[in-house]
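Here is the promised in-class demo. Please do not try to memorize the tokens; focus on the logic of going from shape to residues.
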């Protein structure tokens, strides 16, 4: 497995994996497959997102195929600039349980430390126990629950709020 930052040149491959993620695990993401699929100028927008200074996306490759990703989104407000969010975490189902997710998170954590961030935050759907266990394994700790955080038609999903302190 190879972990590396994604750039605009990876936009098409990343978008394919993103659409797969939204279909495979729709409850794990706020964006729906239909929203993402029907975006105008999707590739151009993805290129801009992958080349952004505020968001850094890392990909895991097996035999040169992108099979997972995670994004670290820095907070833009000066009073929050010591923090970033972990977003859009996904690993292809056939590659889960092989360490790819842990490697992606470790890469994001090391990158965050390298640019002087102090806190990483994320939210995970309460029912997504494998993801929660993964986050705990690398050092994230729960600090709260947002009840009814997501509404899908007539059902609600709670989200667990987690944090990782980069500097003790």
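The designed amino acids, position by position:
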């Amino acid at each position: 497995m190879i972990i590396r930052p994604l750039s605009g040149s990876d936009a098409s491959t990343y978008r394919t994996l993103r659409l797969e993620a939204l279909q495979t695990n729709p409850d794990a993401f706020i964006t729906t497959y239909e929203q993402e699929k029907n975006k105008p100028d999707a590739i151009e927008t993805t290129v801009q997102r992958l080349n952004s200074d505020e968001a850094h996306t890392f990909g895991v490759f097996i035999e040169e195929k992108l099979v997972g990703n995670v994004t670290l989104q820095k907070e833009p407000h000066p009073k929050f600039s010591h923090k970033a969010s972990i977003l859009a975490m996904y690993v292809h189902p056939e590659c889960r349980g092989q360490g790819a997710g842990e490697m992606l998170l470790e890469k994001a954590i090391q990158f965050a430390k390298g640019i002087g961030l102090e806190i990483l935050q994320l939210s995970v759907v309460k029912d997504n126990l494998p993801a929660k266990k993964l986050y705990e394994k690398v050092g994230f700790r729960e600090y709260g629950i947002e009840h009814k955080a997501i509404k899908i038609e007539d059902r609600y999903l709670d989200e667990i709020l987690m944090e990782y302190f980069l500097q003790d």
